[in-house]
Every structure is written in C-alpha cells, then in structure tokens.
Amino acid sequence: MTDKFAALRPATRLVHGGTLRTPFGETSEALFLTQGFIYETAEAAEARFKGEDPGFIYARFSNPTVRMFEERMALLEGAEDARATASGMAAVTAAMMGQVKAGDHVVAAKALFGSCRYVVEDLLPRFGVDCTLVDGDDLDAWRSAMRPTTKTLFLESPTNPTLDVYDIAAVAEIAHAGGATLVVDNVFATPMLQSPLQLGADCVIYSATKHIDGQGRCLGGVILGSRDFIDKNVHNLLRQTGPALSPFNAWVLLKGLETLSIRVAAQNAAAARVADALAEMPGIARVLYPGRADHPQHALAMRQMKGGSTLIAFEVAGGKAGAFRFANALGIVGISNNLGDAKSLVTHPATTTHQRLSREVREGLGISEGMLRLSVGLEDVEDLIDDLRQAAEAAAGGAPLAKAAE
Ligand SMILES: *Cc1c(COP(=O)(O)O)cnc(C)c1O
C-alpha cells in the first residue's frame, strides 16, 4: 500500500484511505455505477487486457468504487491487498476453495458460523478435499490433525454464538510448521478489536454485512492478505467465477467505514456494561462475554483483542421456553439473526442460525436451548439495560431472583 494514509492511525485511515477522487474534486466518495469502461483506442483496450495499462476493464474484475473499499480495508487491516465480494460467504468460499484441489486436506474449528461449517464440512469434501473438525481451544487437536496434504486451517474467534476465544498466534504457528496457511473469520471481533494478520494469520475474511455496514443495509464481504496470497489463491477465482461486490454496496460500505471506529468503540463499551448488568438479572443462569473476568478464555481475549466484543451470549433459565419468553418480552431489542447493527438485536441460535446442526452437535458446542445471543447497538445503554431487565423479569414470571434461578 503506497497510500499516504498508511502511516496514520486507524480512525484517520477509515475516513480518508483509498479515496480515488475525480477531476470534480468531490468531497464524498464517488459512486461509479458502471459495468464497463470506454477505451480511447483499440490499442488502449489491447494494452489494458495485456495488463500493460493498470486501468479498469469490467466491473466483475474491478470498479473504482469497489477498489476504494478494498484499498481502505487493506489500509485498516495492515494487509498488502484485498478483494471485495458480494457477501461474507462468498469471501469464505473463495478464500478456502482458492487454496485447495482434490486430495488436499483442511482443518477447521468446530465452532463456526453455520454456513462456514457447510463450506468446510459438506462442500469441500464433494470436490475431494478432506476436512477435519477440531475443538478450537485444543492446540494438541490442531497439531494432531495436521497431515502432509494439509493446505489451510480455518477458525473464527470469538466464535458464533458462544464467544469462545481461540489462540490465533498459536494456531498460525501450527499451520506454518506444517506448510499450511491460517484463515481467520474476524467478523465477531471486527477490524477495530483484533488484527489477525499481526498475530500471524495469512488471510482474514469479513462479512461486511455486519459491523462494516453497521446499519443493516446491504451484503458484502472482503478477503485480505499478502499480495502473494491474493494473487495466487483468489484473484483469478473471483474474476472468472463472478461473486463481485456491487459498486452501490461498495459505496454504502465505504460510508460505513467512516464511522466504524466510533460505532465499534461505543458498542463495545455498551456491551461491557450490558454484560455485567445481565449477570445480575433474575433467571440469567450464565453470561458469556470475553471482556468479563469469568469468561473461560478471558486472559487470552485481553491479550489478542482490544476490547471484550460488541456481542454477548447468555443463558436464560427454563430452556427454549424461557429464552422465547425473554426474546418476546423485549421492547427495544429486535429479534433478528443479523449482528453488528446500530439497532440491538437478539437471536436464539438453537432454532435459527444453528438449527441445521443436530441437538447433540449443538450441545457439544455449548449452544443450549436457553442460550440467546445479543448484538449491542447504539441505543442509550440505560434504555437497553431497562429493556433487558423487564424481559428477564417477564421470562422469570416476575418471580424473585432466588426462585427464578432454580
Ligand atoms: C454473517 C457471517 C458470515 C457470512 O456473511 P454474509 O455476509 O451473511 O454472507 C460469515 N461468518 C460470520 C462469523 C458471520 O457472522
């Protein structure tokens, strides 16, 4: 990245990085809603297709607004290069498929976003790529899963929905010792709270649909890594197969990036307050929040993250019925499977995002019938706490704390 903003701090990069300004000198990033580009001469077209002239060719390959988004993301993440995709899942699929061929092997943590788990567990094996799933916090399990054919390791941390935290630097070391790469899905941490490339990962992917948009408008994804990683594994795959980000969505996401640092800081601070408040509410059996001292991997979280997360998982007494009573009683917090939004959202993973998994597999992952996942938004934190408290009281049937906790 030769961008002059590379030396400046993240919030500055988020406002200015990667901007391509037209001769009109517009303040806001231009929305180039164009599929193609006109060449001055036939010779110019030939030169561009030969790669002798770096200009744009076709929006499936790239587009100035999409390129601005990629450059800003690369600057933010400290990556040499980035490629935008139509969704987070397009980013995961390309980053994984791009690295393997029949006969290869991948290792992934069991606790993955449902669709990510489909890619490694169902899709890759259909093309002759073996997959081993391990407990992400068991470093010996990662080590013993390695084979001579292992090409890449994949994890998300904190995980969805239980907010387990895995040691990215240690898993990267295991990958590299075996000649493999590590891909990290950094959606839950956001680029503001965790930098996997700095911890040794080779590739980071985001669903930009989440905090990067942050206002519930559009889908998007991005793959970040070294220039070599991008060129070798994903550049051609994306160009020839076509999961391109729409310029309009790239523009929305660019505007989202301008406010990412203040939104995540506010949501993270509010989540820390909400997690502590939830832990004291009636009928809340357990709160899982990496920023709390009672989180199983709290020390690791504080070492590799800059905050406790904008998400909280918690367990409502009374199983599915208790969790449903709690969710249905909420007045401000919406019921939705999305996350990272300005609006606080709650989801019941066992019946939505993780309903595809059997009950046994879910229980093995710690996803109980009473678990809710809360994405903390930008509302006044006192209003949120009041809303959650009245829902907890309603779910516990208005019973006093001691009785409801039974
Ligand atoms: C949402 C999400 C994805 C998929 O992103 P889409 O934009 O919905 O395709 C992948 N990983 C994690 C952790 C997510 O939360």
Automatic annotation (TrEMBL):
Broad class of enzyme this protein falls into: transferase
Keyword annotations: Amino-acid biosynthesis, Methionine biosynthesis, Pyridoxal phosphate, Transferase
Known catalytic reactions: O-succinyl-L-homoserine + hydrogen sulfide = L-homocysteine + succinate
Cofactor(s) the record lists: pyridoxal 5'-phosphate
GO cellular component: cytoplasm
Gene3D superfamilies for this protein: Aspartate Aminotransferase, domain 1 (3.90.1150.10), Type I PLP-dependent aspartate aminotransferase-like (Major domain) (3.40.640.10)
Family according to the record: Belongs to the trans-sulfuration enzymes family. MetZ subfamily.
Function: Catalyzes the formation of L-homocysteine from O-succinyl-L-homoserine (OSHS) and hydrogen sulfide.
Name of the protein in question: O-succinylhomoserine sulfhydrylase
